[in-house]
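User: Earlier you gave me the apo prediction for this protein. Now I'd like the version with adenosine-5'-triphosphate bound, so I can compare the two side by side. Same sequence as before, with the ligand SMILES added.
Assistant: Got it. Here's the input I'm using:
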Amino acid sequence: MPYDASPVIVASNLSRYFRVRLDGENLKDRIKRFIKPQYRVVKALDGVSFSISQGESVGYIGLNGAGKSTTIKLLCGVLVPTAGTVTVNGLEPYRHRTATARRIGLMMGQRTQLLWDLPVHESFNLLGKIYDIKPDVFKANVKRLQDVLDIGPLWHTPARMLSLGQKTRCDLALTFLHDPSVVFLDEPTIGLDVLARERIRDFINEEKRRGVTIFLASHDLDDLEIVADRVMLIHHGKLLFDGTQDQLRQLAGGPLVNLEETVKRFYREAELG
Ligand SMILES: Nc1ncnc2c1ncn2[C@@H]1O[C@H](COP(=O)(O)OP(=O)(O)OP(=O)(O)O)[C@@H](O)[C@H]1O
Ligand SMILES: [Mg+2]
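And here is the structure of the complex with adenosine-5'-triphosphate:
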C-alpha cells in the first residue's frame, strides 16, 4: 500500500539508561555493597534515531538484551527517555499516555491481556468498554477478527484452557480491537510452530493492507517474513542497520540464516571500514 509521507513515529537520539545495583561476587562483597551500594549504568538504548511512516511495517531485530523491549516501552509511553525525544502520532507518548493508548496497540508475546479464568469474550467486552468503542464498531471488529484469526470457536472457552497458539491469536485480536493506527508487537510468535506463524503472517499482511503501521520486535530472523518492508537491526542499544531486507542480505554477504552471525559480520564490516 502507498505510504502516507508524514512520519507517524519519530525517534531522535532516543536513549534510555538504567542504573543497576551491583550484587557482589562473594558474601563479603555483598555485605559491603549492602551497606554502601554501588551501581553501574546499563545503556539499554543509546542514541537511536529513526522515522516511520503511516502504513510502513518494520522488523526490529536484535539479540537478547539488545534493547528491543526498552524501545517499545519508550514508544508506548511506559518508559520516559533518559535523553532524546520520541513522538508517536505527533505526541510524546509518556506525556500523553491516554491519548497515545487510544491510537496504538501493544502486544507483549510473553504476557497476555486475556482474563485468565473467564471466557474469551469477557476480555473483549472489557476492552471494548475501556476503549469506549461504539457498539456497532465493536460488533463489526469482533466479527472481522473472529473470522480472520479463527477465534469464533474459542469465544466461550476460559483463557486458561487455550493452547499457546490459540492464546496468541486471541491476544492479537485484542490488540487490534480498537482500530489502532500503530501496533507494537514484542516477540509475538515466541514458542509458535511454523503453521501458527504463517497464520499470524497472513493476519498481519491483511492489517498492513488496511494501512496499519506495524512495529515488530523479535530476535528471530524468521519473523522478518511477517514484516517484509523494512528491517532495523539493534545491538547493545545502538542501531546497526536500517533498510530493506535485500540491503541487509547484501551487507551481511548472503542469506540471513543466523542473527548472531549477521551481527558479527556487521561489526567486522565496521572495523574494516
Ligand atoms: N528495568 C530495568 N532495569 C535495569 N536494566 C534493565 C531494565 N530493563 C531492561 N534492562 C536492561 O536493558 C538491556 C536491554 O533490555 P531489553 O529488555 O530492552 O532487551 P531486549 O532486546 O528486549 O531483549 P530480549 O530479546 O531478551 O527480550 C538489557 O541489558 C537489560 O538487562
Ligand atoms: Mg524483549
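For your comparison, keep in mind: Strands lie at 4-21, 39-54, 57-61, 83-88, 104-108, 182-186, 213-218, 230-235, 238-243.
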